[in-house]
Amino acid sequence: MTLIDFFIGLTLVNGLPHFVLGTWKGNMLSAFGFGHLQNKLYGLLNLSISLTLYIYSYGFDDLFGNGIYLGGLFVVISYMITGSFWRDFSNKRVEREK
Predict the structure, then answer these.
(1) Which residues does 71 contact at the CB level (< 8 Å), separation at least 6?
(2) pTM assigned to the model
(3) Helix, strand, coil percentages in the chain from 3-state DSSP, rounded to 5
(4) Do the beta carbons of residue 53 and residue 74 sit within 8 Å?
(5) Cβ(12)–Cβ(22) under 8 Å?
């Protein structure tokens, strides 16, 4: 493992909680400050940095051959696509149970 590998993983994993909390309207300090939009943008920035470092280090073709990175990337991107749906679904379910 190299130092760049560490930063690839760090930025990939760090982006997820910021994006999740931004989507669920939670507050967490990010590089852009507090707020939902700030956390979503910081999550996207982390994802962009991670992808850029990975592609720079290993090339685009290797991206689909690395199961660990691809699995983590799948979780991040799938949540970015479906996170609002799950938030709304969960909130409606909680309201019905009251």
Answers:
(1) none
(2) 0.81
(3) 80, 0, 15
(4) no
(5) no
